[in-house]
Design a protein that fits this description.
The chain is mainly α. Helices cover about 70% and strands about 5% of the residues.
């Protein structure tokens, strides 16, 4: 079976597995990678960019090499190749867990249980929950759903289409490293610089595809594109900006504004401020459904692009 079909069938099976099963309950490979990366950090950590570059290269490079080795082992078996791609896709995407956590918080807010929603919010994002009221929690959830649609699903599918299993696991490794050391705390400002920059580069194509598909799948494509063009560059993240702005326009809401991380208050520009309304609790479910539509559309785009590239290459060789 050709590699393009292996990816298409395997990625579809993996995404379906995530929909039906969610993340692995025990022994999650991403958690195992995180423990290994933490062990490497204990050995290598210095308050220096160069040591951070080495940490990123060792951890991300090992993940890519492991994926490449596994793909090489099963290359002669079509069934095994599809099964490996399906397993890798299931492990690295997290759309079902994202939707589940968002809905748990949404149900708590609908029931008036703001404290319960605050307790659950750290499972989804790093905001300070005690600084948020019900509407602030709802806005944080919608923003997290938007950003993680790119980080947890679309970005992985893009790199899977480009590089097969090594692309899938490599993207998740880079994204995990950024979450671990890529923030601007005193400990990681220099050591985590390489992981943060690599994550920005790896996430760039998936974020743009997510923004495009949010506009296509949302209720107001023109508003999504307008918000993206007007406000995305105002966001401090080069990848979260297009995604959150497009989601804001598609949903007709305002995102951004004042938020708090680890006791540090940030005043971010408002996205879709001129046309959007404040986020309501009911917008959580709307954001989840938009995220799911974007995820399946991304599968179609990535698989189709892989097949189209194969067809063009074949025609070029015979011309």
């Amino acid at each position: 079976m050709r590699a393009d079909r292996v990816f298409a069938y395997g990625a579809a099976a993996g995404l379906l597995g995530d929909l039906l099963l969610g993340d692995p309950r025990r022994g999650h490979p991403v958690a195992a990678f995180g423990r290994a990366a933490g062990a490497v950090e204990q050995v290598l950590w210095r308050d220096h960019r160069g040591w951070g570059v080495l940490h990123t290269a060792v951890c991300a490079g090992s993940a890519v090499a492991l994926g490449a080795a596994a793909q090489h082992v099963v290359r002669r078996s079509r069934t095994a190749s599809v099964a490996l791609t399906a397993a890798a896709t299931w492990v690295v995407v997290g759309g079902t867990s994202l939707a589940r956590e968002a809905r748990v918080i949404g149900r708590a807010l609908e029931a008036g249980d703001v404290e319960g929603a605050r307790e659950r919010l750290p499972h989804l994002c790093g905001r300070d929950p005690q600084a948020l009221d019900a509407d602030g929690i709802a806005r944080a959830v919608v923003e997290s759903v938007a950003e993680n649609t790119s980080d947890a699903v679309v970005g992985a599918l893009v790199w899977g289409a480009v590089g097969g299993v090594p692309g899938l696991v490599g993207f998740r490794a880079v994204n995990t490293l950024d979450a671990m050391v890529g923030h601007k705390s005193p400990r990681y400002r220099r050591y985590g610089w390489a992981s943060a920059r690599l994550d920005d580069m790896a996430g760039w194509p998936g974020a743009r595809l997510t923004a495009v598909l949010a506009a296509v799948a949302g209720g107001d494509p023109r508003a999504a594109v307008r918000a993206w063009r007007a406000d995305a560059a105002k966001h401090p993240s080069p990848n979260a900006g297009p995604v959150e702005a497009s989601f804001a326009g598609a949903l007709g809401v305002r995102l951004g504004g004042t938020l708090s991380y680890g006791g540090r208050v940030e005043h971010r520009p408002v996205l879709n401020g001129g046309a959007g309304r404040p986020v309501r609790v009911t917008d959580i479910e709307r954001a989840v459904r938009l995220s799911q539509r974007v995820s399946w559309l991304a599968l179609g785009v990535c698989a189709g692009a892989r097949l189209l590239k194969r067809g063009r290459t074949k025609r070029g060789r015979t011309s």
